Amino acid sequence: MHDRRERTLLAAYAHAVLGLLIAFLAPATLHSQTKAKSTMPADPWTRDSEEDVRKAGWITKEMLQWAPDHDVAAVRRCLTPRPVLALETPHFRILSTLAEQRVDTKDKAGLKLLEAELTLLSKRLDKVEAKRVRRLDPWLRVYLFAQRLEDLRRNFVDLLGPDAAASMAAKTNVLLLERTTELDRYAAQHLQRASAKMSLRHVFDDRTPIIVTAAELGVLQQDRQLAGSVAFNVTHCLFDTYKSNLYELPAWLREGLAHWFAQAIDPDEVNRTTSSNEDITMLLRQDWASLTKKILQSKAMRPLDEIFVDTNFDCMKFRDHIACWSRVDYMVSEHGAAFRSFIDGIKGQFDARGHSLPQSEVPARFQEAFEKSFGQGPTDFDRDWAAWASAKKAKRR
Asked: What's the pLDDT band for 273 if we cut at 50, 70, 90?
C-alpha cells in the first residue's frame, strides 16, 4: 500500500512539473515562431497575395519541394537565421537570401538596363514604377531573377528550335545566397561538396539541375554582375541536361554558349568567379567584339583545331573565353540553322548498340556533326570566323 501511494504521489508530481514546463516553454516557442516569421522581409509588390503571384505568371511563394532528399524547410534550417525567400515559376524553383541593394545611379549603362527590366516587370507587378526604383529590396531581387531566368530559358528554346523544350529538365533550381558561408554550409550539408569559393552546379538524383551562388563571390556584389554569373551557370545547366548529360562535350562550345547568353544580361560578364585573374582588369568595361579584334590582331588566342575536342575548362584563359564567345556568336548570328543541326547531332546520341554514346566516341561524333552542319572543319571555320569578327562593329554602350 505504501509503495502504491508513493507511486501515485510521484506521478502527480511529475504531471505537475510537466504542466509547468509546458506553460513556461509554450510562450517562448510561440515567441520564437513569431520572431522567425517577423524576420521575413515584407513583400510590397504582391502583399503576400498568392493570387497576385499567379497573375504575374508564376506559380507560388509557398513552395515546398526542392530536391529528392531535402525540401525547402530543410534548406531554411540549414541557412538559419537568414530568412530564405521562395518562388516557383513555370520552369524554375528559386530560393534566396539576397539582401537589399541600392541602385547605382552613376552607372548610366547599368541603370538603363535595369529600368528596361523593371519596365517589363511592371507588366507583371503593377506596383513597380521603373524609373522610381532606387532600392532593390529582397523580394524585388527575387522577382527580377524570376523574370530573367524565364526569359533566358525561352531564348534558349528559341535558339534550338520549338521541339527543344520537350527534351529539357522540367525544373531548374537556383539558390541565390548573400554570403559565401551560406554557400559552404549548404554545399557541405546537402551536396556533400566543398564550395572552393565558387558558384556550384549539381544534378540531383531525379535529374533536376541546381546552381548555387553567393553575392560575396569575386565581384558579384552588384545585382547586374550576379545576374550575369547566374545566367552563365544556368545556361550550362540547360545545355548539359538538354536531351542528356551522360557524356561531356568540348569546353569551348559549352563556355562560349554560356557566355553568349550571359552577355545579354551583363555586357561585362567575364565568368569572374571560375577563372584565374591573370588579365581580368583588361576585360572589365570593354566591349567583347572589340576585345575579339585585339585578340585576333595579337594572335594570342589558340586556334579552334587545338581545342576542338578538349573538355578541360582549367586550361582556358580569358582570351580563350572571349574567342569562344565570339565563335558561338558567329555560328548563331550567321549560321543559325547549321548551329541547330550541329547541336542536334551531338546531344542525346547513342552508339551502335543503342546505349548512350561513350565518352571515347564523343570526339569523332563531334567532328562529324560539325563538318556535316557547317560544311567545313575547324581550321576553315576559324578562317571565316576571324574575317567576320574582324569586320564586326562594336556595340554602343
From this structure: very low
pTM (two decimals): 0.86
Distance (Å) of CA 246 to CA 68, 206, 346, 362: 20, 14, 12, 11
In one-letter notation, the amino acid at residue 44 is: P
Q: Is 172 helix (H, G, I), strand (E, B) or coil?
A: strand
What residues contact 133, with CB distance under 8 A and at least 6 apart?
Answer: 103, 114, 118, 140
Closest CA to 124 of 43, 53, 223: 53
DSSP designation for 276: -
Cell 522581409 found at: 41
Q: What is the pLDDT confidence band of residue 395, given thresholds at 50, 70 and 90?
A: low
Joined grid coordinates for residue 395: 556595340
Q: Are 122 and 130 in contact (CB under 8 A)?
A: yes
Q: SS3 for 374?
A: helix
Whole-number CA gyration radius for the chain = 26
Side-chain-facing half-sphere of 201: CA atoms under 13 Å: 19
Q: Could you tell me the end-to-end alpha-carbon distance of the chain, in angstroms, rounded to an integer?
A: 95
pLDDT of residue 10: 44
Beta bridge partners of residue 94, listed in sequence order: 87, 174
* Distance from C-alpha of 355 to C-alpha of 308, rounded to nearest angstrom: 24
Give one DSSP letter per residue of 50-108, joined into a string.
Answer: HHHHHHTT--BSS----BTTB-HHHHHHHHTTS--EEEE-SSEEEEE-PPPEE--TT-H
